[in-house]
Amino acid sequence: MALFHAIYNILWGDLITIPLPGGSTLGLSLLVLILVPAGIYFTIRTKFLPFRLFPEMLKVTLENNRKIEEEEREGISGVQALIVSTACRVGMGNLVGVVAAISAGGAGAVFWMWVIALVGSSTAFIEATLAQLYKEKDPLYGGYRGGPAYYIHALFIKKGSKKKKSILAVLFAVSGLICWCGISQVISNSISSSFENAFHVPPIYSTVVLVVIAAIIVLRKNATVKVLDIIVPIMAACYFFITIFIIVTNAGQLPAVFGRIFSEAFGIRQVAGGGIGAVIMNGAKRGLFSNEAGSGSAPCAAAAADISHPAKEGLLQALGVFIDTLVICTCSAMIMLLTPEAMTKGLEGMDLLQTAMQYHLGEFGVVFIAVILWLFSFSTFLGILFYARSNVAYLFGDNWISQTLYKVLALVMLFIGGLAAYQFVWDLGDLGVGLMTVFNMIALIPLAPKALTSLKDYEKNVMTKKKSH
């Protein structure tokens, strides 16, 4: 336990503390020190890809894929891979996590979440493009598989080498499997507590139903992507349109809300009160946790896509960061910031969000947020088990026994988490994602030139052809 807490504190604790005006301090964790400079570096190296190629991201998402389908696509489409990764990104972090960031860091935290999303989308491009460049055929599920374990392996183990495994790739895969087991518990606990609040359903009933439905889907060979294809667009659209309705009905307050976000982001009041460090760090941390860029999760889905050019999947995953933070996280922030502060004072997490929704939409709001949380969380569970496939295969080889055993373990964790919250397991999830990020970034920086070469090729040979037509 002492070792566990030591590693946890190195990853998430304040490694460096910078004094700020007004007596405030800015504490920087190891992950912030790795991800933010790397994101800025990738943004510069891609010539500000998030701004420059945003129209192209939308074009790639909307383009017609029928031609590839006629030629019998192997595996899933690029957009389906985006849906799987969005299912994981758009989880309860977008609901409860954003609320927690604003509670701790004020409205200014939202601005810093936006900044981190713009920086993170370049990282997401690099890791997704690499996942495509180093993907392998999947003999069990069909199509392709890959992710950080595979490109880390290619970086450290040369072809023809007698070594079967890279230590760093093994560490990444193990960290991922630990993280996703921890997240399974957090998911079911959030669902059971929200259903208890909204419908007074005892946790045992909501948990059993959740586990049974999850088991039916994940234990079937290729049901996961089909189910996510339906759930993710519906849940994201419902949440988005309900938020738009709330924003429109409170349109008069919008100038004040945006004024609060920008003034508190650099705010004189926060500097004077010694709180500017909390504003920046809560926004930055929430942005990093929510969009997952650099953690190495999304490339596990990106590798499975059968797409005409590796950079295309990179652009799709970069767009995924925008969808997660600039759309869904902002929706959560608006729901909360358009609620009178007096009503939400002293509340946190799910209680705070449900109170805000009740203020805007009455009892329907409480029910809506419980159902949306169920969909967000359930889709996250399906997504992380899709991610786990390639990591289980890297560690234990291509066999159904190891694949099924991991799914059963995750379902058991899902059941246990619904009945009780174990802080250790929650911390285990955080530890797993922290270690994944460190191992992934060790490989990402030396391999980045390959992704940048792919981007140059795409811009030269694909985008110029499109323009000429």
Q: How is this structure best described in words?
A:
This is Alanine:cation symporter family protein. It is a single chain. This protein has a domain at 15-182 and 235-358 and 435-468. The longest helix is centred in the C-terminal third of the chain and has 46 residues, at 423-468. The termini are far apart. By secondary structure, the protein is mostly helical. It contains 22 helices and four strands. The strands form two sheets. A two-stranded antiparallel ribbon has the order 1-2. It has a two-stranded antiparallel sheet with strand order 3-4.
User: Sheet bearing the most strands, described?
Assistant: 2 strands, antiparallel
- The first-to-last residue Cα distance is 62 Å
Q: What overall geometry do the principal axes of the alpha carbons give?
A: globular
Summed up, the helix count is 22
Computed over alpha carbons, the radius of gyration is: 22 Å
Q: Could you give the order of strands across the largest sheet?
A: 1-2
Q: Give the beta-strand count.
A: 4
Low-confidence stretches: 270-274
Portion in helices: over 70%
Mean pLDDT: 82
